[in-house]
Fold:
Amino acid sequence: MDMNRTFFLRKEDAKPQWQVIDAEGQILGRLATKLATMLRGKDKAIYTPHTKSGDYIVIINADKIKMTSDKIEHVEYAHYTGWIGGYKVRKAKDVNPEELIHLAVKRMLPKNKLSEQILRRLKIYKGSEHPHIAQVETTKQASKA
Structure:
């Protein structure tokens, strides 16, 4: 590679891999930070900010994720529907575990047009079974070759 030229990854040249991460016993914030970094591709040497250089990530056992101290009782998730009196607040214990992970990762991504496309690469499942086994196996075989 010529050291006098800047490298930019083209979207045609990106080759995303499939990764499976077990969320059992992991802390929500620390996992979300790791996931946001991997989804953006910042853990790779070919990172380019304006392209999707990250991997597809499958999270299993999302229902076994932990929150430190008593955050499960005190953390509130609020949104406004747009209607009068439409301010809704839910406690973390009332939110699905898949949605907890999704919201945590979404809020750690940059607020731009690319973040929605990046977030589509995140697949979250409660149990240990997921429908992406074929993609994961294909990726493992391709990386061994």
The chain has a mean pLDDT of 92. The helical segments are 28-40, 71-74, 97-108, 113-119, 133-144. The beta strands are 18-22, 56-60, 76-80, 87-91, 122-124. Residues 18-68+97-137 form a domain with the Ribosomal Protein L13p; Chain: A; fold (CATH 3.90.1180.10).
